């Protein structure tokens, strides 16, 4: 049932938001010359997939987890994208393809070894990763691997259609925030 909602909502979202996506692509092109950011992430059953986002950092920024990145790498336009959460819009394509869900554990990088161990021991990789979920609306990010894995496991073991809609609505209404970054 959730895959059905994911497919329908991501398709509708991509169609309805296409004018905004096109404008953001054009602005992003002028900001960095490369408006889409593609990064390999850990998917269901630890299979790799390419996650798409609007680029919010300079093109030459090292590929690390957000909480390990320096805030100075974020462009002014990128700061706007992150604050408004518009940088996540291209992930609707990932949802449409089935690599992600609207609701699920945020997909991590393969070099986040501690988080992989914590999630693996709790069965978190048995589900499709998502754009938002319990951890995101409670401001739990990847800088606390054990707490994140525990919260993700709790959400995935108890996820209902009602909770699915709650997490989406809470995120759209601004609850939660992105990963912390190093200031300086």
Q: Shape from CA axes?
A: globular
Helix-strand string: HHEEHHEHEHHH
Low-confidence stretches: 180-184
- The span between the termini is 45 Å
Rg, please?
Answer: 16 Å
Q: How does the helix and strand content classify structurally?
A: mainly alpha
The description of the largest β-sheet is: 2 strands, antiparallel
Overall tally of domains: 1
Instruction: Report the helical percentage.
Output: 40-55%
What is the residue-mean pLDDT, rounded to a whole number?
91
Keywords: Membrane, Transferase, Transmembrane, Transmembrane helix
GO molecular function: transferase activity
Family: Belongs to the bacterial sugar transferase family.
Organism: Flavobacterium keumense
Write up this protein.
- The chain is mainly alpha-helical.
- The protein has one domain (about 1-170).
- It has eight helices and four strands.
- Pfam families: Bac_transf (PF02397).
- It comes from Flavobacterium keumense.
Q: Features of this protein?
A:
single chain, 184 residues, mainly alpha, two-stranded antiparallel ribbon, two-stranded parallel sheet, 8 helices, 4 strands, 46% helix, disordered C terminus
């Amino acid at each position: 049932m959730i895959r059905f909602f994911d497919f329908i909502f991501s398709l509708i979202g991509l169609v309805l938001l296409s004018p905004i996506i096109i404008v953001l692509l054009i602005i992003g092109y002028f900001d960095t010359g490369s408006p889409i950011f593609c990064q390999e992430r850990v998917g269901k059953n630890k299979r790799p997939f390419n996650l798409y986002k609007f680029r919010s950092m300079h093109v030459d920024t090292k590929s690390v987890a957000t909480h390990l990145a320096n805030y100075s790498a974020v462009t002014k336009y990128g700061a706007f994208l992150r604050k408004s959460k518009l940088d996540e819009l291209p992930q609707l394509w990932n949802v449409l393809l089935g690599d992600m869900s609207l609701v699920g554990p945020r997909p991590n990088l393969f070099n986040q070894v501690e988080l992989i161990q914590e999630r693996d021991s709790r069965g978190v990789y048995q589900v499709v990763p998502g754009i938002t979920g319990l951890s995101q609306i409670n401001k739990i990010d990847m800088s606390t691997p054990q707490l994140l894995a525990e919260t993700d496991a709790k959400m995935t073991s108890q996820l209902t259609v009602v909770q699915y809609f709650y997490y989406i609505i809470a995120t759209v209404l601004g609850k939660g925030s992105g990963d912390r970054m190093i200031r300086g």
